[in-house]
Amino acid sequence: MSAVLEAHGLGKRYGRRWALRDCTIDIPEGHVAGLVGPNGAGKTTLLKLATGLLEPTTGGIDVLGGRPAAGPAQLARVGFVAQDTPVYAALTVAEHLRLGARLNPGWDAALARDRIAALGLDPGQRAGRLSGGQRAQLALTLGLAKRPDLLILDEPVASLDPLARREFLQGLMEATAEHRLSVVLSSHLVSDLERTCDYLIVLVESRVQVIGRTEELLAGHHRLTGPRHDPAAPLLDGQVVSARHTERQSTFVVHGDLPGLGPAWTASPLGLEDLVLAYMDHSRLEAQR
Amino acid sequence: MIWLTWRQFRGAAVMTATLLVLLAAVLLTTGSRLANDYATGIASCTRGEECVGFYDRFFGEYELPFLASTLVVLILPALVGLFWGAPLITRELEAGTHLLVWNQSITRTRWLAIKLGFTGLVATAAAGVSGLAVTWWSGPLDQSAPEGFALMDPLVFGARGIAPLGYAAFAFALGVTVGMLVRRTLPAMALTLALFAAVQVAVPLLVRPHLLPPVTASFEIGKGNVDGLSMSRDGVFSVILTSAIPGHTGSWVLSSALVDSSGRTVAPAGEHAPIPVSTTSGPCALSGAGPQGGEACMVEINRLGYRQRATYQPLERFWPLQWIETGIYALLTLALTWLSFWWIRRRPS
To answer: Ranges for the ABC transporter domain (chain A) (predicted)?
Structure first.
């Protein structure tokens, strides 16, 4: 299995501020990978580096084995739906499809037409007069009908209402299954990714906190609750992701095998949201140190 | 990509084309009558003075359309830079659509090349066509134009021949490049206008006079270059020169001054140049003033060694200067284009 996205020591600096630092990731083919993190964590920067819209300051990134945006062939293999799903306000829906057909040799006209029809979009409608959800769907249609091997989406549902959000993600899932394409999708809301992603990257404060298959990550992390134990070491050394303490109780999120701690401790599985929150906490603790 | 460029540009293009066709129609219908009037007028005047009178009457009749058409050609390149050049890229950056189009299967370089090439060619062609049409139309007027409106005068020169072509290409490339660096449409438009205006003022003042080494020559004092002879209350006689030079009608005079027999400048044109000559007796005596006396007085001034010394670009250099100046603007355009390609490769998104 080859990698759709492979980065080594990737970093991007704007002036004196690092938007992304020392990022080493390897996303294998055939996944819907969720890139999650708070606003300003560097998600957009990473995705723009992957599409060649930005040049890295340090390190390197390969997408589908090639340098991002290196030429028409590489561009044809990667689809990108940018944040806020920009479209040409003055052009109609049909003209957007024509644009796609003219600029992409691998354009799938039938796919585009069928999708627009299934969505109930009027081809004669100007894109500027579409609702946010419709605009996002149009942008997704352009990305899909190009028939890329990898589709990258930057916060595609951030500005959509819950219904449009669900419809968009559902459409994305169907297309992914049908055309067997890999997807990298960013969001600052875990709930968006919970149902769609089988691979997860948590990015906080411009650094990758954790990366892996969702199910493996969930199986490899536990919540431990027991008598107050602050600090955690030496009881739990080197595997604490986050710790919370009340007067009598401590709650830890730990990764790796569960240590035998005795009957005072109970272990419970974690949800995806808890896992991500634990890593955000973790990053804050690291920063305080 | 050409389709997309055309689709985005067609509104502005159709509007401009309509206006240009309108302008061309007006010029065509009035142009033949203008040429006719001129031909009959020239044929009916025999003596030089009569012809000067005809020139004045003829030019006066058409002065308003002459100025208006000249102004249109002068302004057109600025409009091209402002409304076509500056928004070309900034509009995409502001709407975020560059992220959409840069992720189709076409490189940014190619995208820019087609956008720049197509729109730029249309812009240059529009300015070129209107420039040449106005040049043709005002041909007879340029023959009869008084000082200040002649073909070689800075403002008229810039609205004739092929120079508007160079200005439009430069203004367009300037607008695009400024837009890329500023990234906002309105500030980019304002900056483009300011820069273009500065260049358009600087070139006639500082560059054009030296494109070819100007001619410096001395001329005898006569009716063709004297504005007036006068005497002050305390009896000092003086000559006031014009900046016209005899025998070289239509030249662009860069400097004109009265010099004495040793070559020393007495006073520049337009100012009183005192000459030590008797005003009580001889040809320049006050009693002898009048047309007859004036001529005798000028002969006397010439005899004393006074001459007009002028530095000028003769009318015959109109086309060489046009080509050189257009070439310079073409080079500037190329440099700006290179800069915009550099930008799109190095500083994207």
So the answer is: 5-230
